Amino acid sequence: MRFRSLLSCSMLLVAVWASLPAEAAVTLPNIFGDHMVLQRHQANKIWGRAEPGEVIVCVFGNQQVTTTAGEDGQWSLQLAPMDASRRPQQLVITGRVKAKSSTGKDAVSTKTIEDVLVGEVWICSGQSNMEWRVANSNDPDLERVSAYFPEIRMVSFPNVGTQEPVWTHEGANWQVCSPETVDGFSAVGYFFGRQLYQVIDVPIGLIDNSWGGSACEAWISREVMEASGKFDARLSMFDNQAKELVELSSVENPSEEQKRAIARLNGNLRGNQRPANLYNGILKSHLGYGIRGAIWYQGESNAGRAYAYRDLFPLMIDSWREEWGQGDFPFYWVQLADFRAEQPEPSDSAWAELREAQTMTMSRLKHTGEAVIIDIGEDKDIHPRNKVDVGRRLARWALANEYGIDIAYHSPIYKSMEVGDGKITLTFDHVDNGWRPFDKSEPIGFAIAASDKKFVWADAKIIRETGQIEVSSSQVAEPVAVRYAWADNPVCNMYDGATLPLTPFRTDDWPGVTVDAE
Fold it and tell me: Which structural domain, as residue segments, surrounds residue 420?
């Protein structure tokens, strides 16, 4: 009798379970949201989570794509390439879970994303000068009242530092550009995107994931940094802090000093300096979203380790490109602006070495470029308010290389030198329409040295017939090296006819002040 009772109970439970509705709960990370912009002319990856085995159907325009969630609930699919479209459309994701019995009903879950456009999408990343808002830049009142650009959209991500990947971020939503919203936009991102929009006339999507003060290594995965073998000391420093935190946290009744140490370690380990923290905490949530390319404004936090940046920065770009899976997408950055007090005599400079490391990256990686802004910084403020020219100089690179616009884009750059008769003659590339020294007719900002490595200010003149610049000094009879704009905040005045400043450079490779910094 008891066996029959248990059997009847089990059959009843099975019947009840079979009659329960199936469950479907399709979700997407926040990069997919109302007012988003999809990248034109290439496949667009859409991804999310659902019940294992759940059938996912994505409908956009005349496309319908189907996939099935894996055993871990993850799913992804791709929309076929599309032309630009300024007609607002819906992106509809439907998940369907089969009923648990023949008499039950399938469960359906639908996510509808409104006002989706198709155009050009760019990542806007880096530290505070990319994070800097329109509201804090030059002429915010004028920018605000003229910001009627509903086809320019931006999504800004929160500052999260962690060693574990963050899948989505609450509260990070796409914003349509308007006088009411533009104050909160990244200024460099906005002025870059606006310039593109005014020229190519398609919707523009901007993904702002910057974090003020962040170090470059925080944007790179730990696996990539370990594999390089060049940054073990940096990794170990934070690993040791993590071990110290574990030890202190296990102490019963910690002292006030120990409590302060715990708070400090927590801040360091969750902050924007630890390797991989921002890769996991911010970038990972939208890495793989369809983009045209990236713009970057960062380096201030790495200036004290400029020689290491020579390898670190290209490593970051390469790793992003590889994981994004879109080939060698364009990556354009802002060279550090002038900052700090002007120095009366030539001297070494960590900031000059960081700028040099940035410039070197162009020769190491294809489809990269540098916007030089050595002329628009401020000695008293690490955040120059003139973000319009920054955005425009970045836009020149994109307009010329991605959109086929015949426009000057590359700042003049040192090519070679010849030594003779107590002078050094310099040759340059990318000098559009000749030289145009600013304010004064003679070139300013050059220093020259003999083999003793002692630099003095030099006299310089433009050779009009060839575009070369001749540099000399009565104090240096046998010169071997020249530097230009080699200081934290150099006094310099060389532009080409397109009003692009000459890239700071040195002809020597003598060890700098950051050569041993890790």
Answer: 413-506
